[in-house]
Design a protein that fits this description.
Layout: H1 2-17, E1 32-42, E2 45-54, E3 61-66, E4 75-81, H2 84-88, H3 96-108, E5 113-118, H4 121-124, H5 127-138, H6 143-149, H7 160-168, E6 174-177, H8 181-189, E7 194-198, E8 201-202, H9 209-213, H10 216-219, E9 239-240, H11 245-256
Parallel strand pairs: 4-5, 4-6, 6-7, 8-9
Antiparallel strand pairs: 1-2, 2-3, 3-5
Helix pairs in contact: 5-6
This protein binds zinc ion (ZN) (2 copies).
One zinc ion (ZN) is lined by residues 83, 85-86, 94, 96, 233.
Length: 257
């Protein structure tokens, strides 16, 4: 029944969006349109996937939704920034894949929820530039130095597109899955009603265990076997089950500064 009504409501949204145009959101006046929806059964649960076009860079952002979120209140939402090397290849230079899987698993078990998969690779600098930054880090630069050396700010991400996507889906209010109040502030500034924060907690595994064991938790960055920092690609570090109160406090302070 829910599925039927989701499909009916999406038919309406798709029809309305054919001619959608607005003044846009954020400094770049981003406007997106909902263009397609399909079922997406996955190993993490039964989802629907919704494709969006935007007026800025032609990137194809998607919403992965569980249940019927159209017109709903208090929808759990996770914002995930694309990371080809982590999400797809399982790179250990970052923990993007673990964060994405944890979010999909969490939402897959809920009645409803949304993962917005945002195509802002490498903190917004793009895949090739991210690999250039990795290369500079291999030569000894830290993450910030590498980005600046390439002519980028430390963080080029923007959540205007996410805010518009939630509005396009007529989501009335959200519970944001994040450890970063700045993300809540940005969405709120763009007009999204964020009712509450759900801490993003991941189960421990062989790849994130060292979080618990090293100063990584203190610095808020991943640190590899050679002691070099990794690129912090999602904008908030996940809390990992088993972290001490003190580790969580230090991690959140770092993220929230
Ligand atoms: Zn618009
Ligand atoms: Zn990553």
């Amino acid at each position: 029944m829910t599925t039927t009504s989701l499909h009916e409501q999406m038919e309406v949204i798709l029809a309305e969006n054919e001619t959608h145009d607005c003044e846009g959101i954020g400094k770049d006046k981003i406007c997106v349109r909902v263009v397609a929806m399909a079922e997406l059964p996955s190993r993490f649960g039964d989802f629907h996937i919704i494709a969006f076009e935007n007026n800025r860079d032609g990137k194809e952002h998607v919403a992965i939704i569980k249940g019927n979120v159209i017109g709903a209140e208090d929808v759990p939402v996770r914002l995930h920034s694309e990371c080809l090397t982590g999400d797809v290849i399982g790179s250990l230079r970052c923990d993007c894949r673990d964060q994405l899987e944890a979010a999909l698993k969490m939402i897959g078990q809920m009645d409803k929820g949304i993962v917005l998969y945002l195509r802002q690779e490498g903190r917004g600098i793009g895949l090739t530039n991210k690999i250039r930054a990795y290369s500079l880090q291999d030569e000894g630069m830290d993450t910030v130095e590498a980005n600046l050396a390439l002519g980028f700010r430390d963080d080029e991400r923007d959540y205007a597109v996410a805010a518009h996507m939630l509005m396009s889906l007529k989501v009335h209010s959200v519970r944001l899955i994040t450890n970063n109040p700045k993300k809540i502030q940005q969405l709120t500034d763009y007009g999204v009603k964020v009712n509450v924060r759900i801490p993003h907690v991941m189960p421990p595994n062989e790849h994130n265990l060292f979080y618990l064991e090293t100063k990584a938790a203190k610095s808020g960055h991943l640190i590899d076997f050679h002691g070099k920092q990794h690129l912090k690609e999602q904008d908030d570090r996940a809390i990992i089950e088993g972290m001490s109160e003190e580790q969580i406090r230090l991690l959140e302070e770092e993220t929230w500064e």
